[in-house]
Specification:
The protein has four helices and three strands; from the N terminus they run H-E-H-H-E-E-H. It has about 80 residues and is mainly alpha-helical. A hairpin with a 6-residue loop joins strand 2 and strand 3. The two termini are about 15 Å apart.
Length: about 80
């Protein structure tokens, strides 16, 4: 199990609250706007942790011409819930 920063938890919670699970997805730039008010070092850590979540398969990506889109892996929702609590 990976440990994630506060900023990454914010992104995961927002994706969950907007029901971006499986087929529904959002552009990465919109997701990164949710943490724009964090201090610089926490912002960098949140982006690094988000990339780790993508590598682990908790957050899936969909390539688009303008930007990559993010959504939660429906098969690993229990792990995501345990991460953000």
């Amino acid at each position: 199990m990976i440990e994630v920063s506060v900023g990454c938890k914010v992104i995961l919670r927002r994706l969950l609250s907007q029901r971006c699970i499986g087929g529904k997805h959002l552009p990465e730039t919109i997701c990164l706007r949710w943490i724009k008010n964090l201090p610089k070092d926490e912002h960098k850590k949140a982006i690094k942790d988000l990339e780790e979540c993508i590598k682990e398969g908790l957050v899936l990506t969909k390539p688009k011409p303008s930007d990559r889109h993010l959504f939660l892996n429906p098969e690993r929702l229990k792990e995501i819930y345990s991460l953000i609590e």
